[in-house]
Write the structure tokens for this entry.
Amino acid sequence: MEIEEEKDLINRLCSVDHAHKAFAELVDIYKERLYWHIRYMLKNHEDTDDVLQNVFIKIYKNIHKFKGDSRLYSWMYRIAKNESLTFLKKRSKILKISNEELQTHIVNNLESDVYFEGNQIQLQLQKAISTLPEKQREVFQLRYFEEMKYKDMAELLDTSESALKSNYHHASKKVEDYLKSH
Amino acid sequence: MKSNKHISDKSGFKVPKSYFEDFEIKRFDIEKHKQSSGFSVPENYFDDFEVKIPQQRKLVNLNEKQKSFAIAASLLLLLGSLLLGLILKSKPQQEFNFSKIDQSVIEDYLEYEMFMENDLYVENEDFFFKFSSKNLSQNEIIDNMDDSSLEQLIDY
């Protein structure tokens, strides 16, 4: 979406008369991208659906606080990321396990998940990803599954391209080592 | 033990010279063998997806007569509270305990107040919530809630 179109959408979202229609437009444009960002973090479809609902509700309620310091999508991405991390924290608290143990727990559930249609290699790949540190996991998934350009990722994560390349390189090696040894 | 036997005595098969000395497990190249995530979604999920916005509380404009009534009612409530305070003061005070706070109040706080903070989303790689006017962090609240309340929260 071009910057001018984005500004127009934000103006309509903040206007009493056009907010509902503009919001429906926003949901239509961004639902899939946000869904997949959340899904890669949570792995489970039902959890993703719940969190996506909350993300859009927060966007709707807080759009007037968006100051335009970044692109609209970067702002929404941060909301989605924070919501997903909060969800994971609550889940680990309930299960009384650490974040690392929760990652293993989630990925082990994939084998019986009706919305996971991966083969053995894809399952092993998910297990490998779950062992990565949080930042490397995020960068790896954005690059590997979503094929996001480093330039766009740098804007989204507010991190330099060289740091992202380094993150991806280390993550890839760890994933490959995991696949080699399992 | 180094072996130079690259020809089998019995079968006659042979392998390249130094094959076993140079043998190593080849790295699984994830870029060459690109994989998709394996995740799927229900049929027509994105076509049918819609956001259910909760109904917002309506603001009611009060006229002068209603304002006077509201002020009088507030004063009456204040006097009542003071009187109740005086009565309770004569009784031994109970120690404050976090678990005695109504859990629905905490849930409402989490749901409708906390996320509305202006500086909720911070430009930092580490994930944390910043509170401009409250002393309690979300994590502190979660740490002080019992499991059943958290289960209810996570199911919202």
User: Anything to note?
Assistant: Residues 117-135 of chain B have pLDDT under 50 and may be disordered. The interface with chain A takes residues 25, 27-31, 33, 35-42, 45-46, 49-54, 115-116, 118, 120-121, 123, 125, 127, 129, 138-139, 142-143, 147, 150-151, 153-154 of chain B (CB under 8 Å). The first helix of chain B runs from residue 19 to 22.
